[in-house]
Design a protein that fits this description.
single chain; 197 residues; alpha+beta; Ubiquitin-like (UB roll); 2 domains; five-stranded mixed sheet; 7 helices; 5 strands; elongated
């Protein structure tokens, strides 16, 4: 028997009903909903691992704890978290800029983290667009996307050439424009989602 706690409600299922974990999820998670958290046998499972588990056979004696939410609620929550992340990063940029100019390792690590964060924000922006279906112009975003692309191209060149002075200057004077662009987009998208729901 599969013992499952789904959004706080205890249920039992016969493992033989499902050829794999993916079939179980199809039965449990309604359309237009996403998995917010997952535990299997009391172990937290990162959401990013779920696709890898879909083909796995389900054991008869397994405990699954799962929470799902509708997609819009999940995106709204994620946007709030990302806006908070952007504000934190903005406040750290002057210090990171100093660390870079001084050649400190933590400055270089912060640049790597920032690059990954910007990449994740761009992916989230594309996903958010699929839901709100509004362009930058329709949301009246002050910063032009091409300005953001130009800053990021210049930043990449400075990284490739290891121009620490240029990197430091960009962190303090140009990267805030990129962060402001994403913050404004996510804030306005969140407002639109809140109006519609």
């Amino acid at each position: 028997m599969i013992k499952a706690k789904i959004n706080g409600e205890l249920k039992e299922f016969n493992a033989e009903e499902f050829s794999n974990f993916g079939e179980f999820l199809k039965k449990i998670v309604p359309q237009n909903h996403v998995i917010k958290s997952l535990k299997i046998n009391e172990k937290d499972i990162p959401i990013s691992f779920i696709d890898e588990l879909k083909e796995a056979k389900i054991d008869e004696e397994i405990e699954i704890e799962l929470e799902y939410v509708n997609v819009v609620s999940f995106v709204k929550e994620t946007l709030k978290d990302v806006i908070g992340y952007i504000e934190k990063v903005e406040s750290l940029l002057p210090e990171v800029s100093k660390d870079v100019i001084l050649g400190n390792q933590q400055g270089l690590k912060a640049i790597k983290d920032l690059s990954e964060g910007i990449s994740a924000m761009d992916s989230l922006k594309n996903s958010t667009y699929q839901i709100v279906k509004l362009t930058d112009q329709e949301l009246n975003i002050a910063t032009k996307p091409e300005d953001v692309v130009n800053v990021l191209k210049d930043f990449l060149i400075a990284l490739e050439t290891k121009d620490m002075i240029e990197l430091s200057d960009m962190l303090e004077n140009k990267i805030p424009t990129v962060l402001q662009y994403y913050k404004e987009y996510f804030t306005k998208a969140l407002q639109m989602l809140s109006i519609d729901n």
